[in-house]
Design brief:
The complex is a heterodimer of chains A (257) and B (279). Chain A is mainly α. Chain A is 81% helix and 0% strand. Chain A is globular, with a radius of gyration of 23 Å. Chain B has one domain: MetI-like fold (Orthogonal Bundle). Chain B has a two-stranded antiparallel ribbon. The radius of gyration of chain B is 24 Å and the shape is globular.
Chain lengths: 257, 279
C-alpha cells in the first residue's frame, strides 16, 4: 500500500515535470494552428523555421558563441586550475571565492554589471561583448570541474618525470593533461551547454542585430504562442538531451573506472 | 609541477578583477552616485537612489517579489522533500535513470520551460481549448500571480530536490533502525532523526530556489504579463527603457543584500541545529 502511494506520488511529479514539454513537442507537429484540434501530422512549422532569417542568424550566433566561449574558457580554466592547485591554502580560498561569485550572483546582476562595464568603457554592445560575458560565466565551471581531477593526481608520478629529466612543460603535456582530461572535457561540455542555454546575461550584454536563440524565443513568446517556437523548442530540447546523454555516459564511465 | 606553476593562474586573476570584481564595484558606485545630465565628469555621492526606493510603489514591488519567491520556495520544499526521500528509497537499478530524469529539466532552457506553460495555460492554450470543446466558458489562467508561482515551482523544483536527496543519501540507515528498535514511531523517527540530518540539504535547497525566484524577470514577464511586475522586471526596465542606471544599480544592490541576508539567516539556523544549541 505504502509502496503504491509513493509510486503514484513520484509519477505525478514526473508528469508535472514532463507534461508541458510533451505538449510543446506534440504541438510542434500539429497541422492546425488552433491548439484545440489536431489537424494531422506535419513538418511545416519546422520548414517555416528553417526559412526564418532571424532564427537562422540567432542560431549562427548561438553556436558560434557557444563553441568559441567554451573553447577559450576550457583553455583558460584548465591553465588557471593548475595554477590554483599549486597555490597556498589562503590564496587558493580567496581565488576560489571570487571564482564562485558569477555562480552565486543572480544572472540579472551579472548581466547588468557586465553591461555597465562595457558601456562605461565605451565598448559597443554586440558579438564581442556577448562573447566576453559568456567566457566570464563559463570559466568558473571549467575550473570547478578540472580542480577535483587535479586533487586526485598522484604527485609522485610528476616528480618522477621531473627527476628523469622531463621539463615542466613536457611533464604538463605528457603526465598531467592526460590524467585530468576527463575533467577538462566535462568542463568543456558544461560550458558549452550553459552558453547555448543562456538568456539573461546575453540579453543584457548584446547589441543591435546580434541575438541568440533564447533572446529570439523571448521576443517571440512575448507576442504570444506560435507553432514555430514549438518547433524551435523541440529542436533545442533534442540538442540538450543529446549533450546530456553524452555527459552522463562520461560520468558513469568515470565512476566505473 | 613546481612552485612556479602557481603563476599560471595569474592571467585569470586579472580577468577576474576586470570582469567579475570591477563590474560589481561599478554597480555599487552607480548606486551611491548621481550623475548630472549635462556634465558627465561631476559625480555627487548620495543615498538618494536608496531613498527613492522607499516609495510605496517600489516597496510594494519588493514585498510582492519576496512573498511570491518565498511562497514558491515553500511549495518547492513541500513537493520536493518527499520526492528526494522517495528517490533515496528506490532500488539501485532504477535509481540512476530516475535521477537522470529528474536532472534533465534542470538543463533545459528556462525560456523553453516557461514558454511551455504558456501553451497550456494561455487563452488559446490546451486547458482552455479543452474547456471550449466541452462548451464550457474559458478561464483566465495566464497573466496572474498564480501562473508566476506555478512557473517558479516548475522551473526551480529540481534545485530543491537535488540537495535534499544528496543529504538524505549520505544518512546512515542504521540510525533509523536504531530509533525504530528503541520504539520510536515513524513520525518521531522523521522528526527526530531524518529531518534534522537532512537539514543542510533543505537549507541549500531553500537558498537555491529562493535566489533565482526573487531575481527572475522572465517568468513574471511571460506568465504574469506586464501588470504584476517583480523587482527583476523593474531592474530590467530601469536599465533598458528608462535608462536610470543609478536607481537600477541601487535596486541590484538591494537584491544582492536580500540574498546575502537570506543565506546568512539560513546558515545561522543550520549551524545552530548542527551544534545542538537550539531545540
Amino acid at each position: 500500500m505504502k509502496n503504491k502511494v509513493s509510486k503514484l506520488y513520484l509519477s505525478l511529479v514526473f508528469l508535472f515535470l514532463y507534461a508541458p514539454i510533451a505538449v510543446l513537442v506534440i504541438y510542434s507537429f500539429n497541422d492546425s494552428k488552433s491548439r484545440g484540434n489536431w489537424g494531422g501530422f506535419t513538418f511545416k512549422w519546422y520548414l517555416e523555421l528553417f526559412k526564418d532569417r532571424d532564427i537562422k542568424t540567432a542560431l549562427y550566433y548561438t553556436v558560434t558563441i557557444a563553441i568559441t566561449a567554451a573553447l577559450i574558457s576550457t583553455i583558460v580554466g584548465t591553465i588557471s586550475a593548475i595554477g590554483i592547485y599549486n597555490m597556498k591554502t589562503n590564496r587558493m580560498n580567496l581565488f576560489l571565492n571570487i571564482n564562485y561569485l558569477p555562480i552565486i550572483n543572480p544572472d540579472i546582476v551579472t548581466g547588468i554589471a557586465l553591461m555597465i562595464l562595457f558601456l562605461s568603457a565605451n565598448i559597443k554592445l554586440g558579438f564581442s561583448t556577448m562573447l566576453l560575458a559568456h567566457i566570464t560565466f563559463d570559466i568558473p565551471y571549467v575550473i570547478l570541474s578540472v580542480l577535483p581531477k587535479l586533487k586526485q593526481l598522484d604527485k609522485n608520478i610528476t616528480e618522477a618525470a621531473l627527476d628523469l629529466g622531463a621539463t615542466p612543460f613536457y611533464s604538463l603535456r605528457k603526465i598531467i593533461i592526460p590524467q585530468i582530461k576527463p575533467g577538462i572535457i566535462t568542463g568543456f561540455l558544461i560550458a558549452f551547454t550553459l552558453s547555448i542555454d543562456d538568456f539573461v546575461i546575453s540579453f543584457f550584454t548584446t547589441g543591435s542585430g546580434v541575438t541568440n536563440l533564447s533572446i529570439e524565443i523571448y521576443s517571440m513568446a512575448r507576442r504570444g504562442i506560435s507553432p514555430t517556437i514549438n518547433a524551435l523548442s523541440s529542436l533545442m530540447l533534442a540538442v540538450v538531451l543529446g549533450l546530456l546523454l553524452i555527459i552522463n555516459k562520461r560520468t558513469t564511465l568515470q565512476v566505473k573506472e | 609541477m613546481n612552485s612556479k606553476s602557481k603563476y599560471l593562474a595569474y592571467p585569470y586573476s586579472i580577468w577576474m578583477i576586470i570582469f567579475i570584481l570591477f563590474p560589481l564595484f561599478l554597480i555599487f558606485l552607480y548606486s551611491i552616485t548621481l550623475r548630472n545630465a549635462n556634465e558627465i565628469k561631476t559625480i555627487t555621492f548620495t543615498f538618494e537612489n536608496f531613498a527613492k526606493f522607499f516609495n510605496p510603489i517600489y516597496i510594494n514591488v519588493l514585498i510582492r517579489s519576496i512573498s511570491i519567491a518565498a511562497l514558491s520556495t515553500i511549495i518547492c520544499l513541500f513537493i520536493g522533500y518527499p520526492v528526494a526521500y522517495l528517490l533515496t528509497r528506490i532500488n539501485e537499478e532504477n535509481k540512476g535513470l530516475l535521477i537522470l530524469l529528474f536532472i534533465l529539466p534542470m538543463w533545459m532552457n528556462m525560456l523553453l520551460r516557461t514558454y511551455a506553460w504558456m501553451t497550456i495555460l494561455g487563452n488559446t492554450g490546451l486547458i482552455n481549448s479543452f474547456l471550449s470543446f466541452l462548451n464550457l466558458p474559458k478561464i483566465n489562467l495566464l497573466y496572474n500571480n498564480n501562473a508566476v508561482i506555478l512557473g517558479m515551482v516548475y522551473n526551480f523544483l529540481p534545485f530543491m530536490v537535488f540537495p535534499i536527496y544528496t543529504a538524505l543519501n549520505k544518512m546512515d540507515r542504521s540510525l533509523i533502525e536504531a530509533a525504530d528498535d528503541l520504539g520510536a514511531d515513524s513520525f518521531t523517527i522523521f522528526r527526530k532523526v531524518i529531518f534534522p540530518l537532512s537539514l543542510p540539504g533543505v537549507i541549500s535547497g531553500l537558498v537555491m530556489v529562493f535566489m533565482p525566484a526573487v531575481s527572475t524577470f522572465v517568468i513574471p514577464r511571460l506568465l504574469g504579463g506586464g501588470k504584476n511586475i517583480l523587482i527583476g522586471n523593474l531592474i530590467e526596465k530601469l536599465f533598458l527603457v528608462t535608462r536610470d542606471w543609478n536607481f537600477g544599480a541601487a535596486l541590484s544592490m538591494i537584491i544582492l543584500i536580500i540574498i546575502f541576508i537570506s543565506i546568512k539567516i539560513l546558515n545561522v539556523l543550520n549551524i545552530d541545529k548542527e551544534s545542538g544549541i537550539s531545540l
